[in-house]
Amino acid sequence: MVGAAVATTGAWLYSRARTDTVGDLAFEQPLHIPPVLDPEIDAEGRKVFGLRLQEGTTELVPGRQTKTWGANGSYLGPTLRASRGDAVAVHVDNDLPESTTLHWHGMHLPAAADGNPHQPIEPGASWSPRWEIDQPAATLWYHPHPHGQTADHVYRGVAGMFLIDDDSPLELPDDYGIDDVPLIVQDKRFGSDGSLDDSAPTLSTVGVLGDQILINGTHDPYFEATTSLVRFRVLNASNARVYNLGFADDRAYWLVGTDSGLLERPHGTTRVQLSPGERAEIVVEVDPGERAVLRSYSPELGVGFPQERFNGGDDTFDLLEIRGAEDLADSGSLPETLVEIDAPTEDEAVESRIFELTNAHTINGREMDLGRIDQVVEVDTTEVWEVTNDHGAPHSFHPHLIHFLVLDIDGEAPPPQLQGWKDTIYVPPGSTIRIIARFEDYADPETPYMFHCHVLRHEDRGMMGQFVVVEPGEVDTASRSVRAEGRHEH
Ligand code: C2O
Ligand code: CU
Ligand code: CU
Fold it and tell me: Burial letters for 170-181: b for 16+ Cβ neighbours within 10 Å, e otherwise?
């Protein structure tokens, strides 16, 4: 009897756990384009950006008012933009009722400017990190990173893009908002009163999986294309959901960039999968007068039956309608090669570290402890990091400070979409991914960077650790204090 009841409940939960919005949207709202924030130039020539984190009310779905958070507005924030070589500063004011932080995801910068849990901004206080942009052109982003509260603060709406330019001459579409368009993809669940519902589904550890999609905060969006090629910079700024980008007519498009930089050459494909925190720059060809629907097909999570379904693996969503104008400006064709990647090689590597994901709240068996340094890296070295998911759930691994290349996945060379600079990567259950990175500068034995799962509920529950970058002479002292911390804890 009990067995039958459990089986019936299981079947009911299973059938209810699938979300499919294909065909449900009317595509009636013009896609909001986050404005590019103009910096002020200070006496030293630094670009100074101002972000004010604030509460507000936003009509995210028509006719319903939702209490939200944003930067310089009630939901999401403006796009920041700077070039390699620029000195920048961001003046962040916290008008929120809670302590938070603002982290520059993918940014190569000093640990004290990182905006991780060690740089809290209390309500009413402000924080002004400064650094120099020194990394390849890429689509980065910013979001809060307070210890234990990241999922909540991101879900309420604090996030934005941070675009990096460099001087490599490239014939890629680059007219912001016209043929170079940010797409911040987020899933939400709304209560009947319009409130944001972050309750987690049953039988899954990943946290909220919304049944509605917002792109740049727009529900039911369309974008009017006026050029024959459009570049979309897609950011998965969702707490837990994995998207598998494709078009309703299955047309091929080009992937030109991943998290932390452009690919060496455009990669023609019909699907690009993005786990939380990952980005893809894609270029789509548009015909005059046509309507093309960008969709998220069921992602391949690799978590098996029945967990696949409870983690969003069977879900499909219409995301955005692209409407081609009757007269499209001719964009020409894409360059055959984009950038040269100066790849670190395995024989440069002086250290190899192991990161084991065996549950949804630890890395290498340890929960995040702000007072413990887990890894000590010597500055000016190359390291191989080996990340293994021995757990049945989806995890997405993200180290701060560095961009990395994928060496191999279960011993195989990475597919084309994982051959460029990355800073976040999906690690399917049962897989081992080896990544390689240079730790070039910014030694600071006092101030750690984070590595963590970018499924935000996992991160908040402790699936995060800390590393410091130190001068050669400091390695021993730093590791001794790590061991002391370890003894102290257990
Ligand atoms: Cu996108 Cu540690 O964060
Ligand atoms: Cu980050
Ligand atoms: Cu995880």
Answer: bebbeebeebbb
User: Residue with the nearest Cα to atom 3 of ligand 1?
Assistant: 105
What residues flank ligand 1, with Cβ below 6 Å? 103, 105, 143, 145, 277, 398, 400, 450, 452, 454
- Token digits of residue 312: 């969003």
Is the Cβ–Cβ distance between 334 and 171 less than 8 Å? Answer: yes
Nearest CA owner, ligand 1 atom 1: 105
Residues facing 438 on adjacent strands: 382
| Domains of the chain as residue ranges with CATH | 31-165 (2.60.40.420), 180-329 (2.60.40.420), 346-489 (2.60.40.420)
- Ligand with minimal distance to 455 CA: 3
Question: Is the pTM here over 0.90, yes or no?
Answer: yes
pLDDT digits (tens, 9 = 90+) for 214-247: 999 999 999 999 999 999 999 999 999 999 999 9
Number of Cβ within a 10 Å radius of residue 419: 18
Q: Which two tokens stand for residue 394?
A: 């989806």
Ligand 2 centre from 229 Cα, in Å?
30
CA of 266 to the centre of ligand 3 (A): 30
Ligand 3 center from residue 328 Cα (angstroms): 43
Dist. CA 233–CA 405, nearest whole Å: 20
Query: What does the alpha-carbon distance between residue 464 and residue 394 come to, in Å, rounded to a whole number?
Result: 15
